[in-house]
Design goal:
about 15% strand; six-stranded mixed β-sheet; hypothetical protein PF0899 fold; about 40% helix
Amino acid sequence: MRKFGINYDRRLRFIAFSILGFIAVLMVIFTPALLFGGAYALATIVPIWGLVSDKTFKEMKPEEVAKLEAAEQIKYFNELNLHKAQQMVDLKAQLKKEATEELTKQLDALRIEINKDNLAQMKLVQKALEDQGLALRKLTLEGGPAGRETLAKYLEENKAQLVGLVKGDGAAKALVIKANTVRASVTDSAEQFNIQDIGQLATRKLTFYELFNRVPVGPGSGGVVTYYDWDEATTVRAAKVIAEGGSYSESTAKWKWYSLPLVKVGDILPVSLEFEMDMPRFARELALFLQINVDIIVDDQLYDGSGTGSNMTGVYTAATAYVAVAQGITDASVYDLIVDARALITSGKRSKYNPDFVAMSLTDIKKYKLKKDKNNNYVMPPFVSADGSVIDGLRVIETSAVTGNTMLVGDSRYATIFEVEGYTLERGFQSGDWELDIPSLKARRRLNIVVKNADAGAFRKITDVNAALVTLAS
């Protein structure tokens, strides 16, 4: 036998050669290319239960699994878990295509089966670990007769020599056996990216609150807005040219006292304490939800509140009605109608009124934007902006608050909003909700809009656009 530089006793030589023999067996089995210069390819050993990767896997009976060695059982369970995971993925994919009760039952049954398999596997792994632990403890902790060294201590002390024997004169070789780990390896994973933003439901554009002047009403107002207005029915202008020695005519000027109560617009939503605490992200959205609900009603009331009961008298309701006059306009359009309504407001009253807006529905806006001549060219008068948003100096306000086939032309300076408190959001209990832990969120605004009788001429409402166009063309 070849002599080494280090003088080993017989025990060391026996253990060293045993380890070398074991490693040689492993290398011959798994990596013949390392021993024979790459002449052989790495052979894939397929176990008796098959592989999921090449679709040869088949489930074994419990009694068959019990006959396997501990290491083989672990390998089998790894393949079994991959097999079950793939079944889970396939069932979920089918459910997305066709949600049936049968598929749902199969998915639930598969989850129960996986849980049972996991429990059985854990028991086997636990038993194997216990057996190995006892064996290692016996090898490392039981010293035997006095003066005898343990295997762990002996290997630790002679580690350098053993490594040298294994390496020999060549470079170290590393054997790595890989197994692909994919997302399907994690059964019923809850990992996900959650979008935090919830968003709000779409509503129509709210425009009239920003369109008109606003005046705050402080505390102590009694919740009422009062003002003087001309009594046009009894007011007479009698000025005239007077000849020498002639008498003067008397004019009459009278006013009336008006009062207008502030109108409360509100909404309420019961919300449990548990919801506020357990679902804070959703609870925060409710305040904005209520505010938008209130603002929609405010916008409606400012435009066409009926003035009856607790309703405001909206600008459209207070406006002077437009009366079309036959003018023989060829192919009269919405453009012509808007220009004529504007002229009626300013005629003889230019010193006071200067209309600046026209409120229309999208239906009537499309009537003039999509109008074409006989050659299919869009019709665009010279007094209209390139995008159609300004007509004869009037800003076009598109809003679904305006009913189709109607419109309002006016001078926004002559409608004023009076409001108190602004927007208020409160939280409290309604009767009987204290015991249920269900407080309510309450949102409210208090306001009203004033168009004085003397200023009603600043607005013209067209109640039938189509009929007005027919009259203008006649």
